[in-house]
Design a protein that fits this description.
mainly alpha, TPR-like_helical_dom_sf, repeat, PPR_rpt
Length: 433
C-alpha cells in the first residue's frame, strides 16, 4: 500500500468495487485494499456491503461487525449491511445468530418494517431454516401483523426448497386458521409441490380452484402441470397445456420442454422424448445441457457417443458433469469396459478429469476386479497431482511375488471396498440383492 501512496493513485468507486470483487476469494488482500481505499475516501455503500459480505463468507464476523460499527459512527444507515450479516450467519448454519442480528436492528434505531421482515424470513428459508422462520413470524405477529406474503415465503420453503408436502399442507391449513386468503403465489407454490411429488389429482384440483377464485396461472403453474402430467404418462394432455400457454401469450422455454424430456427418459420412453426434442427445435428453442444429460442417463454406448457429438455441435458441452454422469451410469450398469471407452472418448472433447472422476472410475474398476487398469489409472491420477485418501490403502508397493500393488480390496455396506482376505472382493448385502 506504500507503493500506492507514493504513486498518488486515487481510484474511483467503480474500480475499487471491481478490484475488491476480484479479490473476494483472498479476503486478507481484499480487506487490506479496502482499508487503504477507506483512508483515501474512495468507498461507496456498495463497496462497504461487499466487504462485509466477503468477511462473512470467511466467517470473519468480528471484522465485519467492526465495519458496521464504523458505519454507525458515521451516522449511516446500516440496514443493508445487517441483512448481509444475517444472510452470512444463516449460510454458516447459525440461525440463532441470524435471528439475534435481526433484533439488533431495533437497537440501532432502525425499526424493521414489514418489507425488512419479509427479507429476513426469505433469508432463513433460503438456507433451510424454515421452521425457525415460521416460529419467528408467528411469535412476532403483534409487532408484524400476519400477511399472505409472509405465509407465502414459508410455503415456498416447504414447497420448493425442502419439498415437504405434509408441512406445506399444514401451512395451508394454518393460513385458513389465521383468516389469510391464499393468492396466486400461494396456489403456484402448492401446485408446484404437488407436482414434484407426482400428485396429479391435487395438482389439477388446485389449478381448477385457483382459476375459479380469479387467479391467473403463470409459467410456474403450467410448467408444474406439464411435469406431473408427463410423469403420469399423460403426454398428450401435457402437450395441450403447452398449446394453451401459447394461446395465452406465454412462451414455453427450455425448462418447459425439459420437464417433459427428463421424466420420459427416466421411464425409458426414448421415442417420445425424441419427439418432444423435435417439437422443441421446431419452436426455435435450443436444447440445454440438462436436455442432453437426460438422454445420456438412458441411452446405450453408441447412442451416448451420438449425443456427445450433438452436444459439441450445439455448443453446450460436454463438460465435467457430463463425464461424471456417464461414468457413474456405466458403473451402475456393471459395464466398466464401456466406462473406460467413454473415459478415452471424453479426451477428444477436451474434458479434463478431476478428483471425483478418477475416484469414481478407479473405485469402480476395483469393485469389478479390474486391478491392473485400476492401478494404471491411479498412477495417472497421482501423476496429475490428484489423490484420494480413500483409495490409498488399496495401492501398496509390489510384493515379493510381483502380483501388482492392489492389496486387500474392500467393500463396505455403503458400496465401498471392505477388507475380506487377500485379493478377494465380496459384496455387501445391498449388492447381493
Amino acid at each position: 500500500m506504500l507503493f500506492l501512496d507514493e504513486c498518488g493513485v486515487k481510484p474511483n468507486h467503480d474500480l475499487v468495487f471491481l478490484v475488491i470483487w476480484e479479490l473476494r476469494d483472498q479476503w486478507k488482500l481484499a480487506y487490506l485494499l479496502f482499508r487503504w481505499c477507506e483512508k483515501c475516501k474512495c468507498l461507496d455503500e456498495n463497496t462497504w456491503c461487499l466487504m462485509i459480505w466477503i468477511l462473512g463468507n470467511r466467517a470473519k464476523f468480528s471484522s465485519a461487525w467492526s465495519l458496521i460499527r464504523d458505519r454507525i459512527q458515521m451516522s449511516t444507515n446500516v440496514q443493508e449491511a445487517v441483512l448481509i450479516m444475517i444472510d452470512r450467519y444463516a449460510a454458516a448454519n447459525n440461525s440463532g445468530k441470524a435471528i439475534q442480528t435481526f433484533q439488533i436492528l431495533e437497537k440501532c434505531s432502525m425499526s424493521p418494517d414489514q418489507r425488512t421482515l419479509l427479507t429476513f424470513l426469505n433469508i432463513l428459508c433460503k438456507h433451510g431454516f424454515i421452521e425457525e422462520a415460521e416460529e419467528f413470524m408467528l411469535v412476532n405477529k403483534k409487532l408484524f401483523p400476519l400477511e399472505v406474503d409472509g405465509f407465502n415465503i414459508i410455503l415456498n420453503g416447504w414447497c420448493n426448497i425442502v419439498v415437504d408436502i405434509f408441512e406445506a399442507k399444514r401451512i395451508w391449513r394454518e393460513m385458513s386458521k389465521c383468516c389469510i386468503e391464499p393468492n396466486g403465489t400461494s396456489y403456484a407454490h402448492m401446485i408446484s409441490c404437488f407436482s414434484k411429488v407426482r400428485n396429479l389429482f391435487d395438482s389439477l384440483r388446485l389449478y381448477d380452484e385457483m382459476q375459479k377464485r380469479g387467479w391467473v396461472p403463470g409459467l410456474e403453474v403450467y410448467n408444474a402441470l406439464i411435469y406431473v402430467l408427463t410423469c403420469e404418462n399423460c403426454v398428450k394432455e401435457a402437450l395441450k397445456i403447452i398449446d394453451k400457454m401459447k394461446h395465452m401469450g406465454l412462451r414455453p422455454d427450455s425448462s418447459t420442454y425439459n420437464l417433459m424430456v427428463c421424466p420420459l427418459c427416466e421411464s425409458s420412453m426414448l421415442g417420445e422424448a425424441r419427439s418432444i426434442l423435435a417439437l422443441m427445435e421446431e419452436d426455435n428453442i435450443s436444447p440445454t445441457i440438462e436436455t442432453y444429460h437426460a438422454f445420456l442417463a438412458s441411452v446405450s454406448l453408441e447412442a451416448t457417443v451420438e449425443v456427445l457429438n450433438t452436444m459439441r455441435k450445439a455448443g453446450v458441452g460436454p463438460n465435467r458433469g457430463t463425464l461424471l454422469l456417464v461414468l457413474d451410469r456405466f458403473m451402475k450398469l456393471k459395464q466398466p469396459e464401456n466406462a473406460l471407452k467413454m473415459w478415452v472418448e471424453m479426451k477428444q472433447y477436451e474434458v479434463v478429469p478431476e478428483s471425483a472422476h478418477y475416484s469414481l472410475l478407479v473405485g469402480g474398476l476395483l469393485e469389478h476386479r479390474l486391478f491392473s487398469k485400476a492401478r494404471e489409472l491411479y498412477a495417472e491420477m497421482k501423476s496429475n497431482g490428484i489423490d484420494d485418501p480413500s483409495l490409498q490403502k488399496f495401492f501398496q508397493p509390489t510384493g515379493s511375488r510381483g502380483q501388482g500393488d492392489v492389496s486387500n480390496p474392500e467393500h463396505t455396506r455403503k458400496g465401498k471396498l471392505v477388507k475380506h482376505g487377500r485379493h478377494k472382493v465380496v459384496r455387501s448385502e445391498k449388492y447381493r440383492r
